[in-house]
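Re-run with default settings, no changes from the original entry. Doing this only to confirm the output is reproducible before filing.
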Amino acid sequence: MSMVNVKLVDGTMGVATAGPHAIVVDRSLANGGTYLGMVGGEILLSAIGTCLMTTLIGAARARDRRDPAGVQPLGRAQRFALALHLDRGRNHHRGRCE
């Protein structure tokens, strides 16, 4: 089971810790923060993206699949890129998960 602790440090800036790891969390300048760390929405997208990335790489390694051109086993891939974008849409309410 994973456990994350969140602590308010100063103003709107906080630190989220899990084991020996830490992430600085803040609000954007436009929303009254100092933007010294990622905002909540960025952390959420980072979590989803890295979860997907590590799952795909892990599955490829377990199967030792080759890419469509047959050049390199995906399980030994040196690079992986994934871009996620959160579209707030027309009914976005300011102040919620930036």
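The chain is about 25% helix and 15% strand. The radius of gyration is 18 Å.
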